[in-house]
């Protein structure tokens, strides 16, 4: 499919869109520049519907096939950037201070735009292709908000597919697995309330620092002694705050710790939260202190439907060949809010090779423009396969 000269020209055009988006990164739900670019392109392509304003800045395009009635499938990309400073020194580097596309959402958006242009021009399929341009993947849960606002029902979506670039995976190759592919990620802040006092008389206080030290150690027992070692779980304490460095002879009355928990099975996620609460409460009680838990639920486990994974593999193999599609790719403890869509509709999430680039969320990262044509070809193969295109 990559030999089609029109697709090669389209990929080159998409590279320009990608670099424009890269220079103007925006965060979470506040994407006026990016959304305007997407709306303008989709409208110019002649999509049958272009609907904006979902989840504030999300955009949905509907393209009807010319071969009659059929299924409705959705292709989804994410559009938001990250609050970090770029260190690439590239000509198309971010022009916005403390914002950059360090996860490749600029590339994802450009590839789906190119797909829309080709589908709108050819329409050689039955049914409908719905293209979802989603805001706020980076911590805002934009996918969940779009679902709550009725995106799946409003457009009659029956299947959903997502794609993300993967540094370290060769350009032109794909990777996927059925079942859980990315972890659920929850966050927490624990406030430990004790009794402060003079550091010279610790017996007159209930030292929350001691409680904190024991609690951090005890929480690690959840992964080492409560969970099956073949069931991946990560618990990391990433935040510690307490006391005053200008009053080192004072035992504080309260301290805080925080962090994240990653789980790969939905049932394990529930069990770990329950055990976490027990460990925190009982550890504090042992030392005559109290603990308050601010539990911040994150994205669910990303679970690929078994049958739709086979669909995605078949489409990827049409593009790359069997030898360049890994259908047993290792799970990752990162999280992805496409998981919300996969909870509601059957579908699959696939990795697209980004080559030897800096890692995601790294200030030196840049999406590899050589990957664009492979991503577009994958989307087109998927539509052809699921909606019965001819030729």
Task: Tell me about the largest β-sheet.
Answer: 8 strands, mixed
| Number of β-strand runs | 16
| Helical run tally | 10
Radius of gyration, in angstroms, nearest whole number: 24 Å
Strand content: 15-25%
Q: Indicate the low-confidence ranges by residue numbers.
A: none
Average of the residue pLDDT scores: 95
Lateral strand order in the biggest sheet: 1-2-4-3-5-16-6-15
User: Which outline best applies?
Assistant: elongated
Question: What distance separates the N and C termini?
Answer: 11 Å
Helix content bin: 25-40%
Order of SSEs: HHEEEHEHHEEEEEHEEEHEEHEHEH
SS-based class: alpha/beta
Describe this structure in words.
By secondary structure, this protein is an alpha/beta fold. Helix content is 36%, strand content 24%. An 8-stranded mixed β-sheet has the order 1-2-4-3-5-16-6-15, with helices on both faces. The protein has a 4-stranded antiparallel β-sheet with strand order 10-12-8-13, covered by helices on one side. It has a two-stranded antiparallel ribbon with strand order 7-14. The mean pLDDT is 95.
How do you describe this structure in short?
This protein has 391 residues and is an alpha/beta fold. It has helices spanning 5-23, 32-45, 105-122, 142-148, 151-154, 208-226, 266-286, 306-320, 339-344, 372-387; strands at 49-54, 58-64, 72-78, 128-134, 159-166, 174-175, 179-182, 184-193, 197-198, 233-242, 250-251, 254-263, 290-296, 302-304, 325-326, 347-353.
């Amino acid at each position: 499919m990559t030999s089609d000269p029109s697709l090669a020209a389209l990929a080159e055009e998409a590279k320009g869109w990608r670099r424009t988006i890269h220079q103007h990164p925006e965060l979470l739900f506040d994407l006026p520049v990016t959304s305007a670019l997407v709306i303008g392109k989709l409208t110019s392509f002649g999509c049958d519907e272009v609907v904006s304003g979902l989840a504030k800045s999300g955009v949905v395009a509907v393209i009807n096939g010319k071969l009659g009635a059929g299924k409705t499938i959705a292709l989804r990309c994410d559009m938001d950037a990250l609050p970090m400073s770029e260190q690439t020194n590239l000509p198309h580097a971010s022009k916005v201070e403390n914002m950059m596309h360090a996860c490749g959402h600029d590339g994802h958006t450009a590839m789906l735009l190119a797909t829309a242009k080709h589908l709108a021009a050819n329409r050689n399929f039955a049914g409908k292709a719905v293209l979802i341009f989603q805001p706020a993947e980076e911590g805002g849960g934009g996918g969940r908000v779009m679902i709550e606002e009725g995106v799946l029902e409003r457009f009659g979506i029956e299947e959903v597919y997502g794609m993300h670039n993967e540094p370290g995976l060769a350009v032109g190759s794909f990777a996927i697995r059925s079942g859980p592919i990315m972890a659920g990620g929850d966050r927490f802040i624990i406030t430990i309330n004790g009794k402060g006092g003079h550091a010279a008389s610790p017996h007159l206080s209930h030292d929350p620092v001691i409680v904190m030290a024991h609690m951090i150690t005890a929480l690690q027992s959840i992964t080492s002694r409560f969970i099956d070692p073949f069931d991946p779980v990560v618990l990391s304490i990433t935040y510690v705050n307490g006391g005053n460095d200008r009053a080192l002879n004072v035992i504080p009355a309260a301290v805080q710790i925080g962090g994240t928990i990653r789980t790969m099975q939905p049932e394990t996620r529930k069990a770990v939260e329950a055990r976490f609460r027990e460990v925190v409460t009982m550890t504090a009680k042992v030392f005559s202190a109290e603990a308050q838990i601010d539990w911040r639920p994150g994205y669910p486990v990303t679970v690929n439907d078994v049958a739709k994974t086979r669909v995605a593999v078949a489409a990827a193999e049409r593009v790359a060949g069997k030898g360049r599609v890994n259908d047993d790719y290792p799970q990752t403890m990162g999280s992805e809010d496409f998981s919300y869509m996969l909870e509601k509709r059957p579908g699959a999430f696939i990795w697209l090779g980004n080559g030897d680039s800096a890692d995601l969320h790294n200030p030196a990262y840049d999406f590899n423009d050589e990957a664009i044509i492979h991503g577009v070809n994958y989307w087109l193969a998927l539509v052809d396969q699921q909606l019965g295109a001819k030729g």
